[in-house]
Amino acid sequence: MAGEIEQRRGSSTALTFALFFVVLFALHIPLLRLPYFWDEAGYYIPAARDLLGQGTLIPHSTPSNAHPPLVMAYLALAWKLLGYSPVVTRTAMLALAAFSLLGMFRLAQRIANTEVAIASALCTALYPVFFAQSSLAHIDLATAGLTFWALLAYVEKRPWTAALWFSLAVLAKETAILAPLALFARESMRVLLRRAARSRQMHAREATASAVPQTPSKPRALAPEESIQQRIPLLLPLIPLALWYAFHYARTGFIFGNPEFFRYNVKATVQPLRILLALGLRLWQVVGYLDLHLLTLAGLLAMFLPPLQDNHEERKRIPLDVQFSFLAVIAAYTLAMAVVGGAVLARYMLPVVPLVMILFVSTLRRRVRLWRGVIAIVALAFVSALFVNPPFGFSIEDNLAYRDYILLHQHAEDFLEARYPMARVLTAWPASDELTRPYLGYVTRPMRVFRIEDFTVEQLMSASDAHSNFDVALVFSTKYEPPQTWFERWRQWQQWKTQFFGYHRDAPPAAAAQILAGRLVYNEARKGQWVAVIEPQQIEEAQARPRP
């Protein structure tokens, strides 16, 4: 009988995974052939190619940032079996996304019920950050999925299985260690509180029975789940993480990545004011970003309603012990990610945002009679946020704005390669990589590049004094700028963004052309993003000069 139950459960899990994968694949078909984008092109794809070609876990074609190699090894294996192409890469990442969604579904089903699991999976799959990241070759979504499976084993009281999943999660990304450490701290605190309560009870009994002689008795032993042995597995993921860092140090001389990576993500971020500002941004990403506030507000308002009843019994809530465990993990991620990480990217919070969704979806089902309608509204809002950019600056990898970026760069770099195949191109990262690495999908052969940091007026003026170093310029928007921002009039916020979060203003195409003493020969814009090609005056004069 037990074997039949396990077989049915396995079949159900496989079918659910297949369903999630097919749906995600179908929704992402228009995106599968897109060239690689931003951090994909800058680190993860080159690192995976180094592993495929040379078998090295430490990349050599790009500076190592010490991220563990599990996802890059997975991509290298996919390319080994199916061939190297964006379609293979994005399909492989969609399989990881389906695996992650399945883990979240099973977790919600275990702690609540199937209705909550379905609604939570729908919201998660359509949430713009999860959807956009589903086919991108980043490591955060895979880390989230492994964390969900670890949490499932944890709530099912399978500590060694949880330790295995958490160990795989930290081999996907080092920050995954936050979850088991948060749970270990919570378990330790719970044991201490129970010991204190038991001690108070014993003292109270002794005080009331002091007048009556009794035979001394030994204190009751701790229950098995309170013992230290039950918490040890939560610390085991520290071992593979430490081994990885030891290996990385032995090969590179650095523990936490190259010095510039460590400076940008740790040294430059540990400032009290920046931590406070980043904490506010992280809280917003957890409960409000890209229409997530609709689900949060609905869940909070539902708390004022009495629980609904089925067959004269209140609808069950997620056990408080599980809720507190979730809150411990959410708090650990929110606080830690406010301290480290130069870029306050929303994808770093993917391991915890679905947990927030599960909690609020469960609350809505328990207390709101038309809860399905509320979930439908939230899902529609998420779909809208995929296509409609918010009225504030945001990372373009968080919705389909990344597709606009890729198409803009594809068109401009096709123009460059056709018209100026031998020219040296003035540009900034990541276009500098797009032009010099044909395997990223933008050009057919490497072009020469003169790289600057960005397209601020200062950088362009500095480049204009070195006309002999480049023949043509490719300029583009490095950040999304909404037509009118919410905080545009608050100068202090602009100063803080510049000081702490690398904010800058790119000179628009016409201004860039004027600074570089050239003319626009190509210009295209899409939904707040733009790209342009500028031909300096010396090229115009050379072309106009009659041939001998």
Describe this structure in words.
This protein is α/β, with parallel strands linked by helices and 548 residues long. The strands form 2 sheets. A 5-stranded mixed β-sheet has the order 4-3-5-7-6, sandwiched between helices. A two-stranded antiparallel sheet has the order 1-2. Residues 214-226 and 539-548 have low confidence and may be disordered. The chain has 2 domains: 17-186 and 231-310 and 317-391, no CATH class; 400-544, Rossmann fold (3-Layer(aba) Sandwich), CATH 3.40.50. The chain has 22 helices and 7 strands. The chain is 59% helix and 7% strand. It has helices at residues 2-28, 39-54, 70-82, 86-111, 114-126, 128-133, 140-155, 159-172, 178-208, 238-252, 259-267, 272-287, 292-302, 320-339, 353-367, 371-387, 401-419, 431-436, 457-464, 491-500, 509-515, 537-544; strands at residues 309-310, 313-314, 424-428, 448-452, 472-476, 518-526, 529-536. Helix 1 packs across helix 4 and helix 4 (86-111) packs antiparallel against helix 5 (114-126).
